[in-house]
Amino acid sequence: MEQITHLSYALDTFYFLMSGALVMWMAAGFAMLEAGLVRTKNTTEILAKNVGLFAIASVMYMLVGYNIMYGDSVNSYIPGISFLLGGDNAVADVLASNGDTYYSAMSDFFFQVVFVATAMSVVSGAVAERMKLMSFFIFAIVMTGFIYPVEGFWKWGGGFLDELGFLDFAGSGIVHMTGAAAALAGVMVLGARKGKYGPNGEVRAIPGANMPLAALGTFILWLGWFGFNGGSELKISNIEEANAVAMIFVNTNMAAAGGVIGAIIISKILFSKVDLTMILNGALAGLVSITAEPLTPSPLEATLIGLVGGIIVVFAILAMDNKFKIDDPVGAISVHGIVGIWGLIAVTFTNADASIGSQLIGTAVIFAWVFIASLITWSIIKAVMGVRVTEEQEYEGVDQSECGMEAYPEFTQRN
Questions:
Q1: What are the chain's domains?
Q2: Would you state the pLDDT for residue 414?
Q3: Dihedral (Cα; 83, 85, 91, 97), 10-degree rounding
């Protein structure tokens, strides 16, 4: 029996770590997607953002964020605060737990830290091409160390949303909508890119520089999402859990496929052409849609949930641009925010334990907390150090003003 415990503990820990590694690979996906959807003159800076935010998220979550989210709390509304990680599980404690402790505590931290980095990655694309790099990094410190862990505690840390019955299996709301809410607050403080909207409010398209990179980034995210959703099952060492993980993988893939098809159909109807950027966002929308509940749907239901997400995201992107004049270069607010809300509602269609009331309350609470806390943080940063580069720097590209180098120097320099 002891030998079986050792083997199952090792297997579940390894699965958890490899799932976390897949989610970490999503950082490369965000970097490539965003690098493809911004203009050439802003490529180096967006890459610097994605590398820097991952490092900041890792450090801040180690210092304080993980303990806020999963440590001792004052009550179900107010988390406690403590610093640094504790030790890992002792062998004797694991054996005495009768299977209740089935993976390493350090593997749990690693899996959770790549999630907080994912939430912060959503922000980077939405504020691209006009934000000061250091202002973004200051916000990343607050977001990953404090804002994200508080709302994460309310559900995954056993807080009041968990007691309420709010369901979010892998983070349509806790991760994706959270990133979108923070991004929306940032864009509102920051304003639109110069030239995005004409004097009469007309929308001017600003095409991305590299569609192959954007497509590559989408496929990397698609792959990483298997770790994102599959790893959230937490265990794989028995037949029931192994079957659950397999179902999650299948449903995750089918929802992404459904999202692509939905975006293809709607973009063809609306534009008479198949818009690649909408297809890419459709895939991500399908993935966000299924993340709140990837286990209980059948593969056909997962496909339909993703299909609806792919349709929603096209209309959401158009509404953000045309109606609300929210300048989001990569569509992150629509993909992760609007579709994240859809994913939380869709839980009620396949999970008998879900109630629409609990889902809507959880959605509203998470969005309100993250948006208000982020808006305050962005406003303070703006007052203290500014958030936006000068008009001249924006025209020349933030690669030069923020990083002092270009991503493709051979295009502009001659020896």
A1: 2-409 (1.10.3430.10)
A2: 46
A3: 60
